[in-house]
Amino acid sequence: MSSSQSLCLKKFQATATKVSVHMILRFDGMRSWLLTYKRLDDGIAITDGWKRVVDDLGFKLGCLLVFTPFESYVDFMLTAFNVDFRVVCQS
């Protein structure tokens, strides 16, 4: 397993504010990125900042943020604090 593939298995944590459309994505508690997103009926769409995460961590485009477990997506929409994500990359 390459290092970029193993990174895909690690958890991220995101913190967002209730009133804005910004999310801080943290990786291993050491690195962080500010993402801009919009809420959709069935999820969120990151509108700015994801390319920096992809570039910094050596992912390829096509990698997705996935809420882990899915219930944390509901928590994110309701409380918008400290939600775990994982990154899934298409092979």
TrEMBL record:
Signal peptide: none annotated. GO terms for molecular function: DNA binding. InterPro entries: DNA-bd_pseudobarrel_sf. Keywords: DNA-binding, Nucleus, Transcription, Transcription regulation. It is found in: Nucleus. GO terms for cellular component: nucleus. It comes from the Eukaryota. Its main location: nucleus. This is Transcription factor B3-Domain family. It comes from Helianthus annuus.
